[in-house]
Amino acid sequence: MTGIRLRQFSYKSILIWLACLFFGGLFLSLIYVWFIRPPVSKTPLEQVIIATNTEYVGTCSITAAREKGYFAKEGIVVLIQSHSSGKAAMEAVVQGQAHLGTVADIPVMFAGLDQRPVAAIATIFKTDKDHGIVGRRDRGILQPADLKGKRVGVTLSTSSHFTLSAFLNRQKLSVKDVTMINYKPEEFADAIERGEVDAVASWEPFLNTMMTRLGDNGVVFYGKDVYESLYNVVGMRSYISAEPETINKVLRALDQGSNYCNEMPDAARVLHEAGKKTNTKEQRAAWATYRFEIELDQGLLLALEDQARWAIKNKLTNKTEVPNYLDYIYLDGMEKVKPSAVTIIH
């Protein structure tokens, strides 16, 4: 009898012990689910497609915002659409292939003249050391004045076109003193190496690629004091007005990305150069002169107006009046996200 009772007692103890374990584990699981485990967001990340040239150093803030998680923190997943020029990126935006695009000021200027319903939401990069002209020494080009009478490759209606005009003007020459031949940026290196042109007006990283191909036969004249590149983010007005909070999220992430590129230059260079075709000593040396910052400066408005007058004078448009470029700048986002960086008079 005693043995039976002991066995019964042991079985009951085991059952009670197992029940305590089960309900104790269940209780702890509930505590974890409701109080400890981070809540799982039921809202999927919003997708934003940005048309840009990731080879260009001006995209550092975009690369940093994506790779360091600043976009994700804002609830955005950014897909990069690769293009070799701002002109092509602008076209992607206009054609509805991308939500936003990165462009220099010239495509914005032409968009105004063509009355395309686009707007710049911010300038994200400035420099006066990324545009220039590469020439062949064996074609007698040793100094800027030697460009007279030469065949010069250029992508028409881009910042390189404007830079070439301004550069020639500085040498007391005009566009009539050279023969301009239109190329896509990615075609420049082959064209100048084969001798189809005597010189090429372009921007980095294409300048470096051409100089590498030409070796000692190449000479480069940089556009410092001739043209300051203003790199902007643009979108269709319809998209911007329909998604103002998305624009604010993008701007906040780009602000963090810009700060990273400025404050962590060595790490930012490594991040930007990862997987890139270009990794130049010149770019590393020039990094300290680059200005990564989101802003809407009065200088952008003045540059657009000046460039429009250039386009009209050189008959690059059938328009005869400079448009009101305030209509092509979206101020609300920056005024909410970083009002101190808005100096455009409006």
Outline the structure in words.
The protein is an alpha/beta fold and 346 residues long. The protein has two domains: 46-128 and 229-341, 3-Layer(aba) Sandwich (D-Maltodextrin-Binding Protein, domain 2); 131-222, 3-Layer(aba) Sandwich (D-Maltodextrin-Binding Protein, domain 2), CATH 3.40.190. The chain is built from 14 helices and eleven strands. It has helices spanning 2-36, 60-67, 70-73, 86-94, 105-113, 159-170, 188-194, 206-214, 237-242, 244-263, 265-273, 281-286, 298-313, 332-337; strands spanning 46-52, 76-82, 100-103, 118-127, 131-136, 151-154, 179-182, 199-203, 218-222, 229-236, 291-295. The strands form two sheets. A six-stranded mixed beta sheet has the order 2-1-3-10-4-11, with helices on both faces. Strands 7-6-8-5-9 form a five-stranded mixed beta sheet. α6 links the parallel β6 (151-154) and β7. α2 (60-67) packs across α11 (265-273) and α7 (188-194) runs parallel beside α8. The chain is globular and about 105 Å long. Residues 1-9 have low confidence and may be disordered.
* Widest beta sheet: strand line-up: 2-1-3-10-4-11
**How much helicity do the residues have?**
40-55%
> First CA to last CA: what distance?
100 Å
CATH architecture of the largest domain: 3-Layer(aba) Sandwich
**The CATH fourth-level homologous superfamily of the largest domain:** Periplasmic binding protein-like II
**What's the Cα radius of gyration?**
28 Å
Q: What's the rounded overall pLDDT mean?
A: 88
Order of helix and strand elements from N to C terminus: HEHHEHEHEEEHEHEHEEHHHHEHH
Number of strands: 11
Number of domains: 2
State the secondary-structure class: alpha/beta
CATH class of the largest domain: Alpha Beta
% residues in beta strands: 15-25%
The poorly predicted ranges are 1-9
CATH topology of the largest domain: D-Maltodextrin-Binding Protein, domain 2
Biggest beta sheet attributes: 6 strands, mixed
Count of DSSP helices?
14
What is the global morphology? globular
